[in-house]
Amino acid sequence: MSKHIRVLLADDEHLIRGAIAALLSYEEDLLVVAEAASGPEALAMARAHRPDVAVLDLQMPGGPDGVAVAAALRTELPGCRTMIVTSHGRPGHLKRALTAGVRGFVPKTISAQRLAEIIRNLHAGGRYIDPELAADAISAGDSPLTAREAQVLELSADGAPVAEVARRASLSTGTTRNYLSSAATKLSADNRHTAVRIAREHGWL
Questions:
Q1: Pick the CATH number of 5-139 from 2.102.10.10, 3.40.50.2300, 3.40.50.300, 2.30.42.10
Q2: Taking each helix axis from N to C terminus, what angle separates 192-201 and 147-155, rounded to the nearest 10 degrees?
């Protein structure tokens, strides 16, 4: 029997994760060695089972998201190829994923057969980025926000008063207001709430 490609599946939606595992079980050369429902669990399972390919949901509860897990695995298990499967394919997410060393980035609408093909391709040293997501990323361009502006804008996303946002960011109220104003201006937003929406739509937060 040929050597199996060992696969880790990480998705917080049990039904989706189970369905993918069941469908991949029909592929003779693929073996799902572990499943995880969160970022920390995905890292623990990867360390324990040392998969060849990790298929990671972008957004998972309980700490690091799929991209952060991929970045950690690139350091800890350099032989493990990583791919992101997501229903939130924003341009900024794709760019973060590529920076983290992710080799595959696909929407959850992909067929199980195509997913299996991509897993094999990644294992062989290739990469696959969904063409539509790639085109969106190119047209969207890079985030105009500085890291600090993005951080402060993210901390204000729940609508907290500026003084509370300043406390969270360990900044003065005036400096915090300046960062929020600058972010809104760069995003052509009337206020910080609109700025948050625009930044999230582009995957910049």
A1: 3.40.50.2300
A2: 110
Per-residue pLDDT of the chain (205 residues; tens, 9 = 90+): 458 999 999 999 999 899 999 999 999 999 999 999 999 999 999 999 999 999 999 888 777 889 999 999 999 999 999 999 987 667 677 878 888 899 999 988 889 899 999 999 999 999 999 888 777 766 666 778 888 898 899 899 889 999 999 999 999 999 999 999 999 999 999 999 999 988 887 777 7
Quote the pTM value.
0.70
Question: What residues does CATH 3.40.50.2300 cover in the chain?
Answer: 5-139
